[in-house]
Design goal:
- Helices cover 11% and strands 62% of the residues.
- By secondary structure, the chain is mainly beta.
- Strand 4 and strand 5 form a beta hairpin.
- The mean pLDDT is 87.
- Keywords: Signal.
- This is Outer membrane protein beta-barrel domain-containing protein.
- It comes from Candidatus Doudnabacteria bacterium RIFCSPLOWO2_01_FULL_44_21.
Length: 200
């Protein structure tokens, strides 16, 4: 019990201190991103998947939400999704989105990749983590993200940095992760994800 409490405290410190350490170095952009991810598959591992994402709830003018859904293929080692949808704003804006996501996991590591296309940009993202404390889902690794703008209004950017994630005790459907990206638009970007997966 004592060891478990120590590990929980360590994980909480990692998730809280990572943004704080980054903020102490240079003015940063903090983003808070809630996500819901669902999958429905048949016995052959084929079916439907979807995401509901608020890219950054700290930005409310306008607040935007990404809704995508589409085809799913999954097995014991991971899944692949090809989806379509849109980015919807509270100002009435609708931006069409094509979204591909994949996840693969083996005993000692996992790999997530995403490719997203909009009329004005393309976005690529990947993270790789290893288990630190498997019994309660603490993982650490690195995350990379790049944006390629198709118009002069969208600046191309790229960033890479450490990622820490943790399954919340008592809430196995919820994972919290924090990544500190360096060199995105010459600034430090700290992003916290809260991922809810119903039915897990």
């Amino acid at each position: 019990m004592e060891e478990t409490m120590k590990n929980l405290i360590l994980a909480a410190c990692l998730l809280v201190l990572l943004p704080s350490l980054a903020a102490g170095q240079t003015p940063n952009d903090y983003q808070f991103r809630p996500l819901m991810h669902w999958q429905i598959a048949d016995a052959n591992g084929q079916g439907l998947a979807g995401w509901v994402i608020l890219p950054d709830v700290t930005q409310t003018r306008p607040l935007r939400g990404l809704l995508v859904g589409g085809w799913l293929i999954k097995d014991d080692q991971g899944w692949k999704e090809a989806m379509f949808g849109g980015l919807f704003g509270t100002d009435g804006s609708i931006i069409p989105v094509v979204n591909f996501r994949a996840y693969s996991k083996v005993k000692w590591t996992d790999l997530y990749t995403e490719f997203q296309i909009r009329p004005t940009l393309a976005l690529g993202s990947v993270f790789l983590t290893v288990p630190i404390k498997s019994s309660w889902g603490l993982r650490a690794g690195v995350e990379f993200e790049t944006i390629a703008g198709f118009t002069g209004q969208i600046k191309s950017a790229a960033g890479i940095g450490p990622r820490v994630s943790l399954k919340l005790p008592g809430l196995p459907n919820v994972t919290v992760a924090t990544t500190c990206f360096f060199n995105i638009r010459s600034n430090i970007v700290v992003r916290t994800y809260v991922v809810y997966k119903p039915g897990k």
